[in-house]
């Protein structure tokens, strides 16, 4: 499916979709626990992959109107009857590898072509350190992955700069081991706020995690306790970043509801827009951010904690006057596609001058108007959504392939933009 976007003004009030990261964690926490009702979950391709994964280990997931009921797999996850297909979802395969470590038997995990290109080596190594055995069928540190359980716990030394999802996985599974897991980071942690989200969800399920000088410790033999009123998923700042960016470059006035302060690192989008000179007001108490169009100027942003914002910031930088420097972005190359290269290539096609280095993306914005172009969505939801925002201000039509991939994290993306008045079509 292609999306075709033309210059237009967006205005109105919309709800942020529910958080993908919180929904994944609530599904896995529910599976480790008894019976949990998850209110206002994100139901998308990625979170469906997590639902299928926990079901493969013996949990059950029922979907009703705006909730999910997860019945846990009991004391031990079952040996899956089949290969687990994690589709496009890095979070799913990594959290499922932790569960697989507790299985008394072998689990095989795979995914789509994109997921099978992403690095899993540190988690394979971690499982080996814990006395289990995990390997890549191709010997490439990529899926397909086979995991044989360890069941016990222990100490793990693991790099912090490949994916925080390994840490999340070890913390969630470690609580159910006998002796717990002590994690020593071999390099500084990137995407750190995602571990904060994990600790937040674990606390809601009564599971304790301690921070240490070198990493984290999760004591073993902990029970996941069902939160008394179920678990309510907050709004998603990563998804909201496209709507806020749209308001800042193509408003009108756009209000996004459901954005409350909390551990999501991507709430930094509000401060980033402010620093660029956007007219934005975040009413934190009421969870409402309102932004209208104003002239933006380039800034320097470190995305070590906020990799998913890179495509949004790159588009803002292309429209802003002056230079925007996105630093500390090497880990953003390990996502659904190499997002640093994808944004450099797409913005260049729109007439923007970009300098790409391994760990830095520099955008020389405001040199000329963005020009509409035919762009490759690269099968990556965040590339598609951010380029759609660029299309709202480009001169002439912007045509983006793989538009259907917004289903991964924000299935209603095009409907919401349409509701805000964007001139776009999908076919
Ligand atoms: O744990 C999570 O929910 C996520 C962690 C981040 O990945 P990395 O930790 O691999 O950077 C982020 O990019 C991803 O979209 C979601
Ligand atoms: C990288 C992402 O997710 P995951 O790692 O779960 O595939 C994302 O949503 O941008």
UniProtKB/TrEMBL annotation:
<feature type="binding site">
    <location>
        <position position="165"/>
    </location>
    <ligand>
        <name>3-phosphoshikimate</name>
    </ligand>
</feature>
<feature type="binding site">
    <location>
        <position position="118"/>
    </location>
    <ligand>
        <name>phosphoenolpyruvate</name>
    </ligand>
</feature>
<dbReference type="Pfam" id="PF00275">
    <property type="entry name" value="EPSP_synthase"/>
</dbReference>
<dbReference type="GO" id="GO:0005737">
    <property type="term" value="C:cytoplasm"/>
</dbReference>
<dbReference type="GO" id="GO:0003866">
    <property type="term" value="F:3-phosphoshikimate 1-carboxyvinyltransferase activity"/>
</dbReference>
<keyword id="KW-0808">Transferase</keyword>
<feature type="binding site">
    <location>
        <position position="163"/>
    </location>
    <ligand>
        <name>3-phosphoshikimate</name>
    </ligand>
</feature>
<feature type="binding site">
    <location>
        <position position="164"/>
    </location>
    <ligand>
        <name>3-phosphoshikimate</name>
    </ligand>
</feature>
<feature type="binding site">
    <location>
        <position position="25"/>
    </location>
    <ligand>
        <name>3-phosphoshikimate</name>
    </ligand>
</feature>
<feature type="binding site">
    <location>
        <position position="308"/>
    </location>
    <ligand>
        <name>3-phosphoshikimate</name>
    </ligand>
</feature>
<dbReference type="InterPro" id="IPR001986">
    <property type="entry name" value="Enolpyruvate_Tfrase_dom"/>
</dbReference>
<feature type="binding site">
    <location>
        <position position="335"/>
    </location>
    <ligand>
        <name>3-phosphoshikimate</name>
    </ligand>
</feature>
<feature type="binding site">
    <location>
        <position position="20"/>
    </location>
    <ligand>
        <name>phosphoenolpyruvate</name>
    </ligand>
</feature>
<dbReference type="GO" id="GO:0009423">
    <property type="term" value="P:chorismate biosynthetic process"/>
</dbReference>
<keyword id="KW-0963">Cytoplasm</keyword>
<dbReference type="GO" id="GO:0008652">
    <property type="term" value="P:amino acid biosynthetic process"/>
</dbReference>
<feature type="binding site">
    <location>
        <position position="90"/>
    </location>
    <ligand>
        <name>phosphoenolpyruvate</name>
    </ligand>
</feature>
<comment type="subunit">
    <text>Monomer.</text>
</comment>
<keyword id="KW-0028">Amino-acid biosynthesis</keyword>
<feature type="binding site">
    <location>
        <position position="21"/>
    </location>
    <ligand>
        <name>3-phosphoshikimate</name>
    </ligand>
</feature>
<feature type="binding site">
    <location>
        <position position="165"/>
    </location>
    <ligand>
        <name>phosphoenolpyruvate</name>
    </ligand>
</feature>
<comment type="pathway">
    <text>Metabolic intermediate biosynthesis; chorismate biosynthesis; chorismate from D-erythrose 4-phosphate and phosphoenolpyruvate: step 6/7.</text>
</comment>
<feature type="binding site">
    <location>
        <position position="20"/>
    </location>
    <ligand>
        <name>3-phosphoshikimate</name>
    </ligand>
</feature>
<feature type="binding site">
    <location>
        <position position="191"/>
    </location>
    <ligand>
        <name>3-phosphoshikimate</name>
    </ligand>
</feature>
<dbReference type="InterPro" id="IPR023193">
    <property type="entry name" value="EPSP_synthase_CS"/>
</dbReference>
<dbReference type="InterPro" id="IPR036968">
    <property type="entry name" value="Enolpyruvate_Tfrase_sf"/>
</dbReference>
<feature type="domain" description="Enolpyruvate transferase">
    <location>
        <begin position="7"/>
        <end position="417"/>
    </location>
</feature>
<dbReference type="InterPro" id="IPR013792">
    <property type="entry name" value="RNA3'P_cycl/enolpyr_Trfase_a/b"/>
</dbReference>
<keyword id="KW-0057">Aromatic amino acid biosynthesis</keyword>
<feature type="binding site">
    <location>
        <position position="382"/>
    </location>
    <ligand>
        <name>phosphoenolpyruvate</name>
    </ligand>
</feature>
<comment type="function">
    <text>Catalyzes the transfer of the enolpyruvyl moiety of phosphoenolpyruvate (PEP) to the 5-hydroxyl of shikimate-3-phosphate (S3P) to produce enolpyruvyl shikimate-3-phosphate and inorganic phosphate.</text>
</comment>
<dbReference type="InterPro" id="IPR006264">
    <property type="entry name" value="EPSP_synthase"/>
</dbReference>
<dbReference type="GO" id="GO:0009073">
    <property type="term" value="P:aromatic amino acid family biosynthetic process"/>
</dbReference>
<comment type="similarity">
    <text>Belongs to the EPSP synthase family.</text>
</comment>
<feature type="binding site">
    <location>
        <position position="339"/>
    </location>
    <ligand>
        <name>phosphoenolpyruvate</name>
    </ligand>
</feature>
<feature type="active site" description="Proton acceptor">
    <location>
        <position position="308"/>
    </location>
</feature>
<protein>
    <recommendedName>
        <fullName>3-phosphoshikimate 1-carboxyvinyltransferase</fullName>
        <ecNumber>2.5.1.19</ecNumber>
    </recommendedName>
</protein>
């Amino acid at each position: 499916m292609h999306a075709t976007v033309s210059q237009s003004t967006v205005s109105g009030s919309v709800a942020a979709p529910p958080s993908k990261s919180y929904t994944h964690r609530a599904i896995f926490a529910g599976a480790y626990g008894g019976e949990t009702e998850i209110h206002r979950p994100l139901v998308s391709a990625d979170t469906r992959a997590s639902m299928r994964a926990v079901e493969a280990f013996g949990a059950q997931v029922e979907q009703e109107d705006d909730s999910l009921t997860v019945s846990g797999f009991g004391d031990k996850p079952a040996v899956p009857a089949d290969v687990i297909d994690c589709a496009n979802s890095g979070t799913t395969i990594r959290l499922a590898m932790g569960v697989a470590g507790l299985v008394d038997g072998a689990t095989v995990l795979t995914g789509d072509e994109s997921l099978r290109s992403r690095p899993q080596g540190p988690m394979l190594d971690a499982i080996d350190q814990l006395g289990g055995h995990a390997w890549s069928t191709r010997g490439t540190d990529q899926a397909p992955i086979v995991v044989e359980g360890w069941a016990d716990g222990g100490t793990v030394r693991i790099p912090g700069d490949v994916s925080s999802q390994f840490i999340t996985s070890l913390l969630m599974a470690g609580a159910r081991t006998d002796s717990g897991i002590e994690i020593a980071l071999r390099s500084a942690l990137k995407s750190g706020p995602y571990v904060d989200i994990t600790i937040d969800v674990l606390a809601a399920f009564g599971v304790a995690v301690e921070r240490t000088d070198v990493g984290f410790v999760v004591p073993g033999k902990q029970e996941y306790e069902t939160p008394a009123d179920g678990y309510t998923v907050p709004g998603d700042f990563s998804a909201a970043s496209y709507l806020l960016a749209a308001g800042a470059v193509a408003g009108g006035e756009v209000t996004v509801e459901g954005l409350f302060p909390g551990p999501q690192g991507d709430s930094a989008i509000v401060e980033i827009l402010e620093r660029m000179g956007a007219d934005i007001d975040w009413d934190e108490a009421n969870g409402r951010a309102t932004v209208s169009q104003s002239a933006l100027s380039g800034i320097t942003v470190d995305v070590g904690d906020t990799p998913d914002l890179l495509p949004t910031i790159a588009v803002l930088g292309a429209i802003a006057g002056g230079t925007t420097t996105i630093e500390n972005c090497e880990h953003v190359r390990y996502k659904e596609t190499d997002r640093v290269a994808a944004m450099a290539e797409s913005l260049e096609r729109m007439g923007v001058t970009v300098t790409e280095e391994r760990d830095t993306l520099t955008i020389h914005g405001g040199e000329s108007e963005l020009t509409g172009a035919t762009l490759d969505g690269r099968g990556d939801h965040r590339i598609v959504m951010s380029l759609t925002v660029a299309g709202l201000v480009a001169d002439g039509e912007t045509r983006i392939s793989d538009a259907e991939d917004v289903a991964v994290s924000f299935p209603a993306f095009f409907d919401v933009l349409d509701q805000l008045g964007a001139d776009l079509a999908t076919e």
